[in-house]
Amino acid sequence: MDDRKLKILAAVVDEYIKTGEPVGSKAIAGLIDIKVSAATIRNDMAALEHMGYLEQPHTSAGRIPTFKGYRLYIDELLTVESLPQDERNRLDKILDEQDVLTEDVIIQSAVTTLAELTQCAAVVANSAPKFSVISKVEVIPTGKRMYVILLITSNGNIKNKACRLEFDLNHEQLEFFTHYIEENIHGVSVEELSEEMLDKMVAAMGAYMVALSPLIKGIYELSEGLKHEEITFSGEENLFSCGDLDKMEVVRFIEHKNRITELLDDTFSGIQVKFGTEDDKFVIGNSSMIVSNYQKDHRNAGSLGIIGPMRLDYGKIIPYVEYFTQKLTTLISENEDELDDIN
């Protein structure tokens, strides 16, 4: 493909993204700086159609990009600029104004803000819990024979579970439990907390086994929940306002949205653009996903992305995804440093 055809393809994609209408040769002649006639451009557009990069929805209409055209545009023709500093400052203010910055709060704030900015669905798949360790476990009496187990991990995850015991615990039992947990669970990786390990802990409690074993079981159940990849969505309703998307496909996507974890798990470093036509896991046909991963301790900790129609303004949206990916990495790292100082 020669440079002129590439310029024409880029111009068609840019114009179609703006208008949503088929693009004709006369419109392209006024958009790009090439010294050829509209007839020559029309011939080149026909050639691009023959090669599978453009298609003509109606015989008398202009042309629109195909999936293949979008892919070439994304991979070779798109120019992405950095997010302006004033916009970065504005977003920093939004994300930094939370009263409590646990990892869950950071992720929820980022995904909500990204959905509002892009008017698309935003998703974060957080795989960080499996890299974390138990930093604190507390048992809080809340009523007659009722106790809440509070579990905090090194990455700021806070989980709790209510337990009803057969009888109330006295001060000596609670004190024993606190010291026993500190000695046996604090600093242990979430991945290492197995049922077998906790069964051995129960058996070693001796006289305290009957009274305290339900609390150990509660800790195990909380840790199991942390081992699974957590998916956070925001703005799914935005997909219904996208005229390019099939509403029933959007409904099916929302009903089974956790299946997208497999697609997010395939994400490598850097920005990636994936199309609904490329993967069976992506049940919305005429859609795209812009996704990148964020890190913690120099390891992949999760993926962040937006889901919208194929006709997205990629040059505008990609800088936001890049910014939020970098911001998540920074905030989560700072948050862990603060927790390490506390612990």
Structural notes for this entry:
With 343 residues, this protein is an alpha+beta fold. It is 46% helix and 19% strand. It contains twelve helices and ten strands. It has helices at 3-19, 25-29, 38-50, 67-77, 85-96, 103-118, 171-184, 195-203, 209-227, 247-255, 261-265, 314-342, and strands spanning 54-55, 64-65, 121-126, 134-143, 146-153, 158-164, 230-234, 272-275, 287-296, 299-309. It has a five-stranded antiparallel beta sheet with strand order 7-3-10-9-8. Strands 4-5-6 form a three-stranded antiparallel beta sheet. Strands 1-2 form a two-stranded antiparallel ribbon.
Helical run tally: 12
Instruction: State the assembly state of the protein chains.
Output: single chain
Quick one: how many beta strands?
10
Structural class: alpha+beta
Order of strands in the sheet with the most strands?
7-3-10-9-8
Please compute the radius of gyration using only Cα atoms: 26 Å
If you average the pLDDT, what whole number results? 85
In percent, how much strand structure appears in the residues? 15-25%
Q: List segments where confidence is low: pLDDT < 50 over at least 5 consecutive residues.
A: none
Overall shape: it is: elongated
Considering DSSP H and I runs of 4 or more, what fraction of the residues is helical?
40-55%
Q: How many strands, what sense, and barrel or not for the largest sheet?
A: 5 strands, antiparallel
Q: Terminal Cα separation, in Å? A: 60 Å
**H-E order:** HHHEEHHHEEEEHHHEHHEEEH
